[in-house]
Amino acid sequence: MDKNFYITTPIYYPSAKPHMGHAYSSIVSDFFARLKKIQGYDVFFLTGTDEHGQKIQRAAESNGKDPIKFCDEISKTFKDLCKTLNLSNNDFIRTTEGRHKKSVENLWNILENKKEIYLSKYSGWYSVSDEAFYADDEIEEVNGSKICKISGSKVEWLEEESYFFKLSKWQSSLLKFYEDNPEFILPETRKNEVISFVKSGLKDLSISRKSFSWGIKVPNNDDHVIYVWLDALTNYLSALNYPNVNDNLYKKFWPASVHIIGKDILRFHAIYWPAFLLAADIEPPKRVYGHGWILSGDEKMSKSKGNILDPIEIIDKYGLDPLRYYLLKEVSFGNDGNISNEKLENCINSDLANNYGNLCQRVISFCEKNIGLKVPDVDKFNNDDVEILNIFKINFENLKNQIDKQNINFYLNFIVDQLFKANKYFNDQEPWKKKTDIKRLNTIVYVALEIIRKISILLYPIIPESSLKALHIFNISEKDIDFETILDNNFLNKGDKINKIQILFNKIT
Q1: What is the pLDDT of residues 417-429, one digit of tens each?
Q2: Residues paired with residue 261 on neighbouring β-strands, in sequence order
Q3: Alpha-carbon distance 200 to 168, whole Å?
Q4: β-strand partners of 165
Q5: Distance separating alpha carbons of residues 6 and 259, to the nearest angstrom
Q6: Are 75 and 49 in contact (CB under 8 A)?
């Protein structure tokens, strides 16, 4: 079985500092990357910044800076965010790098040689903010300004010479590709949107601009720069050393396992990107997952609205792992979600402090006081023991299958349910009343320790720092985490030393 896994975030547009939406895409991608690693996969996790286009050029000019210096500064804030969010990414790509330019020029030359590109004139609506072209029926007038219905961004009428990609030619091929690969676009609602749009008729796509200069020049025509989305999407290949198709990275990891993106850039990834690749005889990615927005109140965050949620401020106040846990659990993956201090504090207190942290603390404290800090001997498991231990075995295949469909909600709900059952088990078994029956007391403690170990492994991709503190109880380090050991009910060895644990999460009062 193929045990390679290539996951990408969108490459972020560094016209302003990172916000919670950027953090969300990155944390979700990191969750899948870490989970696949502990499942024994060879994982390549990519993120980066998309640094070309008119929006960047205008932002640099308004700040009185050269575009590349402006990008150097802003891109660094996104690179620093990777460390702040404790991401496990293998690479961080910038579209201003030489390796990327080489990839983009190669893809352009292939499309041109295959007669998929022609020179003509573009007339239509263009959003600098979205770096996207829109049809007449996608535009409305609001307070005297032309606005894109989809994104709410202002558009302007554009007329200029442009190279076009024969997108219309690929309409039938795309529809067949979606039919042959029914899980290429997830969730299902996004797939329906895309298929409906493609069936309504595709027009050829303008893929170059003359009205600004900040971008990769069209090969053999310096008057044009390559459309920012053809440029940006190619990053997923650039990081694998394309166009060297014999490179080990490319051979191992392409096609990508999944592109994690926001729903606002679904069209570019689910229509334009596979069309470019099919036209160039390159296999499309296996999946594009379009998640919802992290809202500020009831609105999408944007610099113009002044409603940006800063992840750094929330991390400084509450900590990183609580934010990671909240975003993965409380935002239904695929739908829009929002964040509030009240909801975050409730989540910390209920799930992390009371359920997980308290379980670890009370079991280890009881163990220390009654049998010493060593794994106890087991007499025999009774029905209650077997039932709670085997829940992990019974649900193992389903857990893997659901996560392969990016069903984060199923995974988190399973963990929360097991935390509840673990606390109930320890309460119901009342080991403090079994001091005259040391064999039963030992068995209860052993079962509780095993459950903590199993749950901590499941929590590792979500809250890596905190779960590693819990796994240190059993002297399990990050490199030793193996997802399949949650199947083992006798993993812990009698007499092995266990370690004390400090308070994992402080309650918010």
Answers
A1: 999 999 999 999 9
A2: 290
A3: 11
A4: 117, 205
A5: 9
A6: yes
Give the full edge-to-edge strand order of the sheet including 337-338.
Answer: 299-300, 294-296, 337-338
Cβ atoms of residues 6 and 257 within 8 Å: yes
Secondary structure in 3-state letters for 56-86: HHHHHHHCCCCHHHHHHHHHHHHHHHHHHCC
Measuring CA to CA, which residue among 186, 260, 282 is closest to residue 30?
Answer: 260
Q: Which domains does the chain have, with CATH numbers?
A: 341-487 (1.10.730.10)
Sheet-wide strand order for 217-218: 208-209, 221-226, 217-218
Measuring CA to CA, how many Å separate 303 from each of 85, 156, 225, 309? 22, 19, 26, 10
From residue 292, how far is each of 3, 335, 421 by CA, in Å?
29, 4, 31
Element containing residue 217 per DSSP (H, E): strand 217-218
Q: What is the DSSP secondary structure assignment for residue 132, as one 8-state letter?
A: E
Strands 258-262 and 288-291: parallel
CA 259/CA 268 separation, integer angstroms: 12
pLDDT bucket at 308, cuts 50 / 70 / 90: low
Structure tokens at 313: 């401020």
Q: Model's pTM, two decimal places?
A: 0.92
State pLDDT tens for residues 93-102: 999 999 999 9
Kindly report the backbone phi and psi dihedral angles of residue 113, in degrees, each rounded to the nearest multiple of 5, phi listed first: -65, -25
354: Cα within 13 Å, side-chain hemisphere: 12
For residue 173, what are its two tokens?
């091929």
Q: Residue 156 above 90 pLDDT?
A: no
Give CA–CA dist 24/290, Å, rounded: 12
